[in-house]
């Protein structure tokens, strides 16, 4: 069901456009809940919730993009009843990109816009060593060093153990991902990256221009890989500007 894959939004009935949001590895819908208020009433923000976290904690997480894509798109189908766009951060950028391509390939419509954040373009090789196959203590230490795991999770062994399964699965998906078969997008693509992001350089983000026949823009914002926590205002302004008149109720 669509309700399983996304969270509800107060703007669902009046918004001119729906925005599906995909979080970083280990992230969930909570990262985008403030966006629902800040973009209402013109944009219906729908954070996408993958299995293995938050209210879906007991479900088995996906480890490969190709396995995730079918169930995810089936779940989003009932929400494709109006113009839509996608935003993805880090791992979420790759998921959003492949979701956009799969929905288009199925003939269910084309997105108005794809916003990708803090992940190198899909066709570029990784330059950092993989983490997903490390022993658990080394894996969790390496992930904690990156700064994306909430402190309340790191400080409680029980929470950390429950969180670790989905986190490792997400890293496996992120680190083994290669673009799936398919063509170029036709919609505009906007790439956003923190100026001090050690995982995605501006040249790597510029490579996203090769994923679409449409317009491309690169936005560099202040911050590191998790710039959204402190500097979400600029991405939100970019989303408002790009969706423009379509987003008006």
From TrEMBL:
SUPFAM superfamilies in UniProt: alpha/beta-Hydrolases (SSF53474)
Question: In which organism is this protein found?
Answer: Streptomyces hygroscopicus
Q: What is this protein called?
A: Thioesterase
Q: Where is the Thioesterase domain positioned along the sequence?
A: 18-234
Similarity section: Belongs to the thioesterase family.
